[in-house]
Amino acid sequence: MCTNKAIQPRFYHALIPVVFLAAALGYTQYYAKQPPHFILFASGMIAAAVAVFWLKQKWSDLQQGMIESIKMSLEPIIILMVVSMVIATWIVSGIVPAMIFYGLKVLSPGIFLPASLIMCAIVSMASGSSWTTAATIGIALMAIGYGLGIPQPITAGAVISGGYMGDKLSPFSETTNLAPAMAGSKLVEHIRHMMYTTLPAFLIAVILFAIIGSRYSDAYLSTENINSVLNVMQQKFVISPFLLVVPAIILYMVIKKFPAIPGLFIGAFLGGLVAFFVQKASLSDILVALQSGYKCTSGNVVVDSLMSRGGLESMLSTIALILCAISFGGIMEKSGMLSVLANGILKIAKSTGQLIAATVITPLLVNVFAGDQYIAIIIPGRMFKSAYVARGLHPKNLSRTLEDSGTLLSPLIPWNSCGAFMIATLGLTPWTYVPYCFLNWLCPIIAIIYGFTGYSIARLNEEETTGKRVVPAEPDVVDDMEVEPAA
Prior knowledge:
The protein is mainly alpha-helical. It contains 22 helices and two strands.
């Protein structure tokens, strides 16, 4: 639209769409009680208006930036679609009912929450994917927790905390490889350095979930209600341990680094085969479940609420939310306003502690305003890399903090791709689960504490700081006797 020379954006330019977004989201979420789709997209248009009419940028460039950001989110969107198919076929096939059935028989309310946290951490560390963990074992744990009388947000907190703990430390995870690549550190040293923040947070989370679980272990648990659920499931589905072979196959494929999209689709296909041959479901019933989700009509309120899930249509609102958030983030990044916001934060970081705190806050803001955890790692990683070197700080400090904030805080924001995925997959209400994602918000807090105390903050040696190899000085020789070189 405008062909004049573009003006470099300043901090107050970037604040205009951000303030609009914050104010509009506050009204929409807390007063109008409406989803944030339109507000996110409208904020992107406000940012575009500032860029075009004030900063003299071209709409075609902004549109290209928006499209490029959407391209980055296409893989998660496709995964989200395939996950909806997995949920549908695994319910109609009896796989999820079998997992719930045996889980209700084995797990008690007292140990359920810490056990869920640990199980999700193990599965996620082996698979390298918090999304796969939530879409498989996470769905079953949510249903088991519901059957045990534990509120859904608390169970979700255990599932998400465990899933992201394993994802964060797994060498198979995309973010675990992306963070050191952006910061300039090595994968192995990055994972080792993350132990300082992740393990204490994980231990605290285990203790907190054990304390919360103990509150429910003493509560009256109706054996009659549990038996009613088990009986209805046996009447509605063929329950057999052999049904668990399908999720075992999928988890094995993921551990062996089989691509996520075809791997999950195979899971959905196998679920359809089991539904057809074991549960005797018709092809029409399977196709309806894949499109619209499975609708359970057993007459038991608990079973019907647990089993009425899945289908492509159930994910359309989530996909639209991701697209709106990513569109806004793409315009903010392409216009340079996202970098201006981050640079504004960096200017006030005068000490190591303030720099670490700025590195925590910046990915959080990028997660909020760009809606994608990868952007939340890439942009701050590129921005802060030189600042860490200038202060003599090892790049693994930066890569660790990028994960502590960029990766772990992403599922806590409802319109972020990760938050939208968890809400849709686990059947959550936005914000209600956030207080119970103990590991996710403990890691950034611990990272900031370390920054101000200096604990576990690694520093560069002279060779790493200058980029030149330090050659030890040759000793002086006097009468064939070595002496110390002069100071």
